[in-house]
Write a structure and sequence with these properties.
The protein has 105 residues and is of the alpha/beta class. The chain has four helices and six strands. The strands form two sheets. The protein has a four-stranded mixed β-sheet with strand order 1-5-6-4. It is globular. It starts with a helix and ends in a 13-residue tail after the last strand. 21% of the residues are buried.
Length: 105
């Protein structure tokens, strides 16, 4: 639903708030050796079968070049950090995460 709505609204990014601080190679709550990714392409998510969103949503984001930012929502201040462009979580998309433009709260 988020990917479809994002496409319809022409959003710049989909923010995916989760209980972990990004996308990992395995479930970090079950595997202490899981590695967190700072940046992934859509193709990597599909190829490595990473549990970000369902494949239809990933495909829709890929077709429409809508990046996804996965971040932890329970950590105090993270929503503000994301909105201000701080480099938290995992960026999924064709290009690299844009640099913060100096926005302040």
């Amino acid at each position: 639903a988020a990917a479809l709505r994002g496409k319809e609204l022409g959003v710049e990014v989909i923010l995916k708030a989760t209980k972990v601080d990004g996308v990992y190679s395995a479930d970090p709550l079950k595997n202490p050796h899981a590695v967190r990714y700072e940046h992934l392409t859509y193709e990597q998510v599909v190829r490595e079968e990473l549990k970000v969103m369902d494949l239809t949503a990933i495909g829709m984001c890929m077709e429409n070049a809508v990046p996804i930012l996965v971040f932890e929502f329970k950590r105090e201040g993270n929503i503000e950090r994301v909105v201000c462009g701080e480099p938290i979580g995992t960026w999924i998309g064709r290009g690299h995460r844009p640099k913060a433009t100096g926005a302040s709260a």
